[in-house]
Amino acid sequence: MTTQSKVVLRDEQNPIIAVLSSSFTGSMKFARRQPIGAIGFVVILIAIIVAITGPWIKPEDPLEIHARSLFHKPEWIKGFYLGTDHLGRDNLSRIIVGLKPSLRIAMFGVASGALIGYFMGIVSGYYGSWVDAVLQRIVEAKLAFPTLVLALALVSVLGTSAWHPNAWILFGIIIAMGATVVGLAFVNEREAGAAISTLVSTSIFIGIVLILLIGLLDDRPFTRLPVFTLEKVAVPILLIQIPGTARVVRAVTLANRNAEYVQAARAIGATDFRIMIRHIAPQTFAPVMILVTSGLGSAIIIESSLSFLGLGIPPPHPSLGGMLSGQTLTNVEKAPWNAVFPGLVLTMIVFSFNLLGDSLRDHFDPRLRK
Question: If 286 and its partner were Cys, which of 185, 274, 333, 364 is the partner (CB 3.0–4.6 Å)?
Answer without folding.
Answer: 364
